[in-house]
């Protein structure tokens, strides 16, 4: 029985030869889940990225293909989801999961949030970076 996002992400990664199908299923489930589960699905994608690192290029490539749709969907589901998206995109940029595309992705998300929520994207970005400082410690502890 899978008890956590770590277990589920490990299980997903064990099917890396079927990364496309795993990611497509993840996206379908994201679109059909209740609003309160959206952030959990985004964190699952983050956990998969974190665990597979540079070795799991299949998942990185497949997630990159669907992230615009997934993140747009999440951004439309309220401020909690928007903050989670921004936080994760900042993490992905810091860890360079998508190489130089990560910065572009973060800039797009900040712009979308600024335009749609009428908030200062730079202030939100700074808040997300502060949260990421705390996240780094947990990230490093979990990696060991």
Poorly predicted spans: 131-144
- Report strand %: under 5%
What is the residue-mean pLDDT, rounded to a whole number? Answer: 79
User: Could you tell me the number of beta strands?
Assistant: 0
What's the N-to-C terminus distance?
24 Å
Helix-strand sequence: HHHHHHH
Fraction in helix: over 70%
Domain CID: 1-114
GO cellular component, one term: nucleus
InterPro entries: CID_dom, ENTH_VHS
Pfam families: CID
Pick out its properties.
144 residues; mainly alpha; Serine Threonine Protein Phosphatase 5, Tetratricopeptide repeat; 0% strand; disordered C terminus
Report on this structure.
The protein is mainly alpha-helical and 144 residues long. 78% of the residues lie in helices and 0% in strands. It starts with a helix and ends with a helix. α2 runs antiparallel to α3 (38-52), α3 runs antiparallel to α4 (57-75) and α5 packs across α7 (121-143). The chain contains 7 helices and no strands. It has helices at residues 5-13, 19-32, 38-52, 57-75, 79-94, 101-117, 121-143. It has one domain (5-143): Serine Threonine Protein Phosphatase 5, Tetratricopeptide repeat (Alpha Horseshoe), CATH 1.25.40. The chain is globular, with a radius of gyration of 15 Å.
Q: What's the structural blueprint in terms of helices and strands?
A:
Elements: H1 5-13, H2 19-32, H3 38-52, H4 57-75, H5 79-94, H6 101-117, H7 121-143
Helix pairs in contact: 1-3, 2-3, 2-4, 3-4, 3-5, 5-6, 5-7, 6-7
InterPro entries: CID_dom, ENTH_VHS
Protein name: CID domain-containing protein
Organism: Zingiber officinale
